[in-house]
């Protein structure tokens, strides 16, 4: 290669090295091997030479051209590598970071219990009804045969809100689901009023009312907000025996155990007469042998039946109120009620 050609190759290499982008590089290339690049011009000059000269000069120019093209290819590659590297840096991922997983949700254990209770009672022909958590004094107490200033009210000390009812007594956060007995009965009586007026028999009332309840109470087994589920079965011929059958059936289905024992222990509630606490006893498992209280119950008091707008000489039945929180603790072996309301995902996940 002549000195001239070598210097062209040298300057091409330098120009390529200085190109910072693929576009720069293509511009630099054009100056050497483009349509009117320096090498191309030299090729054109060959035409004027003799055959012999053409051969040797042509070969030399070709050699120079190849050297330039090799330099070009090399620079193209290194620019492409650099660009890729920059891109990778910009899009860098820290693969050691913990992933953002979207875990499947699940129902709260108490909600699972509520659903279970509803299913079991629905299968026994019970309706499911909802009611207000902010309740009138009459519904929470007086209608349930628990008049103002009666000492039995202290069994259910609750919270009051700054809204007064028509009777001038503030509304309360219902301390039990029992007011739903009276609310539902009123609804039922109204619904069937035409039928009864026409001489027909009113269908029996058979309902459960699950929901949130409130009391001034807070420890490992009591929370100021908790859950209850009321039950009511009222008709012309419903007896305590029916209560025993229904509740025994419910408990055995709920706990999936046929050898569960039940005990109806005499007690007092203003709204029932006679009244009983319902205790259950597991025959096996960690709680075997202990009597565990799960509900209050009794035959609906005539005064309550009257407040429902019904004749206590004609309608008779039973009611019960159970604690779904307690049932959940027993079913899953949870020892502290507060776990249900802390919202700790590690606890709640276990019920998914
Ligand atoms: N309301 C009662 C309580 O909160 C439970 C209860 C007892 C409900 C007897 C009833 C019943 O319907 O008949 O302690």
Give the helix/strand layout:
Layout lengths: L2 H16 L3 H12 L4 H8 L5 H40 L18 H15 L3 E2 L5 E2 L1 H4 L19 E5 L5 E4 L5 H13 L1 H5 L7 E10 L10 E11 L4 H15 L6 E9 L2 E10 L10 E9 L1 H6 L8 E7 L1 H9 L6 H4 L2 H4 L4
Parallel strand pairs: 1-5
Antiparallel strand pairs: 2-4, 3-4, 5-6, 6-10, 7-8, 8-9, 9-10
Could you walk me through the main structural features you see in this protein, from its secondary elements to its overall organization?
By secondary structure, the protein is of the alpha+beta class. The chain folds into 2 domains: 88 residues; 243 residues, 2-Layer Sandwich (BirA Bifunctional Protein, domain 2), CATH 3.30.930.10. The protein is built from 13 helices and 10 strands. A hairpin with a 5-residue loop joins β3 and β4. α1 runs antiparallel to α2. The radius of gyration is 44 Å and the shape is rod-shaped. The chain starts with a helix and ends with a helix. 31% of the residues are buried. The mean pLDDT is 94. 3,4-dihydroxyphenylalanine binds next to β9 and β10. The site of 3,4-dihydroxyphenylalanine has 12 residues, from β9 and β10.
């Amino acid at each position: 290669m002549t000195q001239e050609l070598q210097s062209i190759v040298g300057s091409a290499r330098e120009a390529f090295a200085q190109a910072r982008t693929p576009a720069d590089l293509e511009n630099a290339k054009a100056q050497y091997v483009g349509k009117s690049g320096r090498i191309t011009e030299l090729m054109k000059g060959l035409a004027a030479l003799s055959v012999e000269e053409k051969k040797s000069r042509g070969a030399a120019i070709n050699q120079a051209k190849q050297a330039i093209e090799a330099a070009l290819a090399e620079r193209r590659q290194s620019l492409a590598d650099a660009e890729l590297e920059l891109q990778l840096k910009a899009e860098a991922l820290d693969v050691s970071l913990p992933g953002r997983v979207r875990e499947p949700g699940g129902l709260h254990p108490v909600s699972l219990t509520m659903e279970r209770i509803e299913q079991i009672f629905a299968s026994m022909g019970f309706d499911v009804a909802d009611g207000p958590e902010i309740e009138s004094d009459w519904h929470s107490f007086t209608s349930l045969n628990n008049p103002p200033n009666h000492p039995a009210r202290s069994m259910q000390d609750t919270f009051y809100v700054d809204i007064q009812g028509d009777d001038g007594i503030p509304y309360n956060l219902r301390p039990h689901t029992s007011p739903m007995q009276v609310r539902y009965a009123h609804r039922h009586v109204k619904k069937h009023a035409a039928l009864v007026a026409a001489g027909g028999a009113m269908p029996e009332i058979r309902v459960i009312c699950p929901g949130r309840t409130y009391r001034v109470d807070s420890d490992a087994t009591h929370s100021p907000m908790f859950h209850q589920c009321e039950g009511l079965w009222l008709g012309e011929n419903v007896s305590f025996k029916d209560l025993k059958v229904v509740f025994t059936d419910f408990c055995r289905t709920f706990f999936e155990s046929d050898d569960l024992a039940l005990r109806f222990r005499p007690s007092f509630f203003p709204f029932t007469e006679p009244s009983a606490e319902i205790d259950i006893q597991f025959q096996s498992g960690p709680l075997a042998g202990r009597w565990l209280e799960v509900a209050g119950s009794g035959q609906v008091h005539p005064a309550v039946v009257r407040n429902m707008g019904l004749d206590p000489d004609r309608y008779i039945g039973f009611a019960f109120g159970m604690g779904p929180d307690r049932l959940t603790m027993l079913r899953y072996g949870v020892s502290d009620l507060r776990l249900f309301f802390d919202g700790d995902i590690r606890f709640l996940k276990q019920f998914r």
